[in-house]
């Protein structure tokens, strides 16, 4: 498959890029700083572009099979990277006739069990107030897009190694699980890029 990754300089995006190449896919990454991508591969294309400036990347989506958004921010200031960035991506997808998109969000947006709602949700919303607000807006725009979307909601991300063993829940909450490695999050994404069972669905993933 041909995939395009936004956020490839972050921990999850880097894992998606590397694991997709390992699996034999053709990968294009859109990054503001191409020099931050240190690997080189015959099936890797590096394109300089800013997700908030769609004119810099919109023509790159032609011929792609799937778009992966693992966008993130490095601070806790107000942001539109998630909502406006993904809106720009989806506009470019429609223009290029690309229908499949997978977006990384966060499980803290919609905690499941009562104890999570009572304990975790207030703390997470306080700590990540602006990022979570923008992620909620992103999710709403994705759900309204009429694309073949999947929103993946991981809990706390770690740099542990890939195991290939984790819990998943489609369109429902996991009853347990506080963390997942970026490597295993990427493992799930790469394995389910063309899985129609996940289309128009929310996926929770954790150990």
In short:
By secondary structure, the chain is α/β, with parallel strands linked by helices. The protein has helices at residues 11-22, 81-96, 114-127, 129-143, 182-191; strands spanning 2-6, 26-31, 44-48, 66-69, 100-104, 148-153, 156-158, 167-170, 179-181, 201-206.
CATH class: Alpha Beta
**Class by alpha and beta content:** alpha/beta
Provide a count of the helices. 5
What count of domains describes the coordinates?
Answer: 1
Find the count of extended strands (DSSP E, 2+ residues): 10
Radius of gyration: 16 Å
Q: Percent helix among the residues? A: 25-40%
Can you give the mean pLDDT?
92
How are the strands of the largest sheet arranged? 3-2-1-4-5-6-10-8
CATH superfamily: NAD(P)-binding Rossmann-like Domain
Biggest sheet character: 8 strands, mixed
CATH topology: Rossmann fold
Q: Which overall shape is indicated by the principal axes computed on the Cα atoms?
A: globular
Uncertain regions: pLDDT < 50 for 5+ in a row? none
**Whole-Å distance between the termini?**
28 Å
């Amino acid at each position: 498959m041909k995939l395009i990754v936004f956020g490839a300089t972050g921990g999850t995006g880097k894992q998606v890029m590397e694991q997709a190449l390992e699996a034999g896919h053709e990968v294009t990454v859109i990054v503001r700083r191409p020099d931050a991508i240190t690997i080189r591969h015959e099936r890797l294309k590096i394109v300089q572009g800013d997700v908030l400036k769609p004119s810099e990347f919109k023509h790159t989506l032609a011929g792609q099979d799937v778009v992966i958004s693992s966008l993130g921010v490095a601070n806790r200031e107000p942001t539109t990277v998630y909502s406006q960035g993904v809106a720009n991506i989806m506009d470019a997808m429609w223009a290029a006739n690309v229908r499949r998109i997978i977006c990384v969000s966060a499980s803290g947006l919609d905690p499941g069990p009562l104890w999570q709602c009572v304990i975790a949700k207030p703390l997470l919303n306080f700590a990540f107030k602006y990022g979570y607000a923008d992620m909620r807006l992103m999710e709403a725009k994705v759900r309204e897009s009429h694309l073949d979307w999947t929103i993946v909601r991981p809990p706390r991300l770690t740099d542990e190694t890939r195991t290939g063993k984790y819990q998943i829940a489609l369109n429902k909450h996991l009853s347990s699980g506080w963390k997942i490695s970026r490597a295993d999050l990427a493992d799930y994404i790469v394995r389910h890029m063309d899985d129609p069972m996940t289309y128009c669905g929310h996926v929770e993933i954790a150990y």
